[in-house]
Specification:
Blueprint: E1 8-13, H1 21-31, H2 34-37, E2 39-44, H3 46-49, H4 56-72, E3 81-84, H5 90-99, H6 104-108, H7 111-119, H8 126-140, E4 146-148, H9 154-171, E5 179-181, H10 216-224, H11 244-257, H12 261-267, H13 273-299, H14 302-331
Parallel strand pairs: 1-2, 2-3, 4-5
Helix pairs in contact: 4-13, 5-8, 5-14, 8-9, 10-13, 11-13
The structure holds tryptophanyl-5'AMP (TYM).
Tryptophanyl-5'AMP is lined by residues 10-14, 22-23, 26-27, 45, 48, 135, 138-139, 147, 149-150, 152-153, 156, 186-189, 198-199.
């Protein structure tokens, strides 16, 4: 009997600054179960990080820490390819081809480009604008059907679909047109200080996010300081649109404890925000502590991490070479004689 070909899933996180609870609950955590069903590739997208100024030594450190974090969060290098984006040169090569079919107007309209241009007004570089084309290249290179990401990346995946369809229409069927996989309640974890904005690792206010490397005391302190809502219903732990702060904490509690939102509302009825916030902190700590311990252990074994990265890049390169050769042929480039 012919072996069933598994569908493919691809995702990545930038090794920029501190990885947050939002990155974990909105993305990384949801990758683990996919490994059973799909052929998965998980990438540390270091080239994307260069679109904002980096300290080189810190970028190297963050990159390795993120590799260890992926494994500590449950990515199994025996099942999935885990690799660093810059180790597979086809990413930037395909990005160039996609650049030739991407319109300046559509890149200019990307919400994240506009946000980052505001935040880094002194460094609105071409890479920042081209960022979604490199992301499209990451995905299309592997013919991935599924892209598990948080809500803030949906627009980029939509652009990826547009570019795939445009290329296919112009040069005949070449790319799989990918779809987003969003987690139900984790797809947009909000800032603890401004619960209508997303929790972001680039937030200048450290109290706005929980970093996956925060220690117990810091997690408790940040959650105690989390903005709740002042309304007539004060101290009522209820999930609703007019209570964004409490709703965000309920989401975090539910995702970290495995309790449903409705159950959590019942559990904290009449208990007040103080008790509730401590319980959220306990739930977050119980999830992060074992991850932190495992990440630390892995970082002590550089040889293992290097072996994982080599194997991951070898597997990824094999797929990437095939796609790029096909693309070069379709657009009319003459293959090099070797
Ligand atoms: P990045 O590094 O900003 O974020 C990594 C992942 O975390 C998700 N995320 C969130 N989810 C829920 N709530 C939040 N507050 C939150 N903040 C971040 C993001 O949606 C993302 O899934 N461009 C991407 C990296 C990338 C990529 C790719 C992703 C490059 N190439 C190819 C998928 C496929 C980014 O900057 O993610």
């Amino acid at each position: 009997m012919a072996e069933e070909v598994k569908k493919r899933a691809f995702s990545g996180v930038q090794p920029t600054g501190k990885v947050t609870l939002g990155n974990y609950l909105g993305a990384i955590r949801n990758w683990t179960p996919l490994q059973e069903q799909y052929d998965c590739l998980f990438c540390v997208v270091d080239l994307h990080s260069l679109t904002v100024a980096q300290v080189p030594a810190e970028l190297r450190k963050n990159t390795l820490e993120l590799v260890a974090l992926y494994i500590a969060c449950g990515i199994d290098p025996e099942k999935s390819a885990l690799f660093i984006q810059s180790h597979v040169h086809e990413h930037t090569e395909l990005a160039w081809i996609l650049d030739t079919i991407a319109y300046v107007g559509e890149l200019n309209r990307m919400t994240q480009f506009k946000d980052k241009s505001r935040k880094h007004a002194d460094n609105i570089n071409m890479g920042l604008m081209n960022y979604p084309v490199l992301m499209a290249s990451d995905i299309l290179l592997y013919q991935a059907q599924y892209v598990p990401v948080g809500k803030d990346q949906v627009q980029h995946v939509e652009l990826t679909r547009d570019l795939a369809e445009r290329f296919n229409a112009r040069y005949s069927d070449t790319f799989v047109v990918p779809e987003c996989l969003l987690s139900k309640s984790g797809s947009s974890i909000k800032s603890l200080q401004e619960p209508t904005a997303k929790m972001s690792k680039s937030d200048p206010n450290e109290n706005g996010y929980i970093s996956l490397s925060d220690d117990i005391d810091t997690i408790r302190r940040k959650l105690r300081r989390a903005v709740t809502d002042s309304d007539t219903d004060a101290h009522c732990v209820r999930h609703s649109a007019d209570k964004p702060g409490v709703s965000n904490l309920l989401n975090i509690y539910s995702l970290c404890s495995g309790t449903s939102i409705a159950e959590a509302e019942r559990l904290f009825e009449g208990k007040g925000y103080g008790v509730f916030k401590d319980a959220v902190a306990d739930a977050v700590i119980s999830v992060l502590q074992p991850i932190q311990a495992e990440q630390k252990r892995l970082l002590g074994d550089k040889a293992y991490l290097e072996a994982v990265l080599k194997r991951g890049a070898d597997k990824a390169s094999c797929i990437a070479q095939k796609t790029l050769a096909k693309v070069y042929r379709k657009v009319g480039l003459i293959p090099q004689i070797r």
